[in-house]
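Q: Could you predict the 3D structure of Ent-Kaurenoic acid hydroxylase?
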Amino acid sequence: MNLKWAIAIATVAAATFFELLRNFNRFWYEPKLKPGQAPLPPGSLGWPIFGNMASFLRAFKSHNPDSFITNYLHKYDRTGVYKAFLFWQPTVLATTPETCKVVLSRDSLFETGWPSSTRRLIGTRSFAGVTGEEHLKLRRLTEPALSNPKALEDYIPRMSSNIKSCLEEWSCQERTLLLKEMRKYAFRTIHDILFSKDSGLDVEEVSSIYYEVNQGIRSLPINLPGTSYNRALKARKKLDVLLHRVLNKRRFSEKPEKTDTLSLLMDATDENGKHLDDKQIVDLLVMYLNAGHDSTAHLILWLLIFLLKHEIVYDKVKEEQELIASQRPVGESLSLSDVKKMSYLSRVINETLRVANISPMVFRRAVTDVEVNGFTIPKGWYVEPWLRQVHMDPAVHSNPQNFDPDRWARNEVRPFTHLPFGLGSRTCPGNELAKLEACIIVHHLVLGYDMKPLNPDCEVTFLPHPRPKDYFPVQVRRRR
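A: Sure. Here are the predicted structure tokens for Ent-Kaurenoic acid hydroxylase:
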């Protein structure tokens, strides 16, 4: 009899402990709402500490990353917002064009909300970590170098020269790892924009360091030896050393540059005449070098993958580029006005950005209680506009898995349903530069070279960015 009672008590205790454990995050993090307040979004905050990270990682390490959000849709219907616990914090997932628009455009309600673990890697003094007037000041200071038409026009000869050299080099190789080479090319481009001249940075070294940083950005932020996050922190320290060295070299140069982004940052002062400190300059350089070479490299990679996969699209792009080249006076180089004529290629780039989803989500934080779609997002909770879901939702884009550039000509794409660079005051400042680089590469490739994929059916990995696991090897040959 005593044994039966002991087993019963143990069973009840275990069940009680399990139930408390299962509901710990809800008890600890969910606020008590005021009378009349809308309810919290549907969903679950998951298990203590890890929350919903297991299901997130399981989905993004599978062949179907969209299953992460699909599970919410099936379980809670299409409410547009769901609660979860991701990256060590209570989070609301915004999954429709309407809810993403509210979160991304209402700066008075939502500030930048990158997880603290990510800010340590990107830079606490970069755009990822600053808000309000400080963010606007930094954007006013640096954006002209990345999006001003005059600046873009000036970059074209340099970009064209770089890609011509790359294509010629690749054409002499039996096998070229396209993503690796695109990273080199994009790094050279953003390097020239930031520094104007040789900074002493080694492209191979810095690109490999950035790879480690990016591996840690969306990994579990466990700082133990051997983890992705620990390796990322060590890589970030290496970047700090390298960029401080560049900064000091420029500061003590006898003939310092006065026209590049680094000079703008070093010369900038606030309303009180105070300069940016070295840490903030380095954080900004880390952010721009990262976004300007890694994200751009992935955009170009997927653009070329889709062109090689879809012969009809490739032929239309080639026809457009041949027409543009034939209309250009003999001896003149590619210009910004030529790029503006690339209407079909522009649609192909937009479709690439929609399907590839290089950045699946962005991070914000509620500065006050906000009601969205009839649900309360509590003050202090983090919010993730899930851009990938907007782009791949069949209720938003017809046949979203199909690569169809002509959907842009049919005016199928409604406002706020294409958000690869974000929206509002925090729209990626380098979006025009990235698309310009893509146009220039395609122009020179299709007019003079053939590219053959050597393993077109390679498995794709989705973290930290979607890419073929083998970096997409190709063979490039000059067209005779």
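Q: Anything worth pointing out?
A: The chain has 19 helices and twelve strands.
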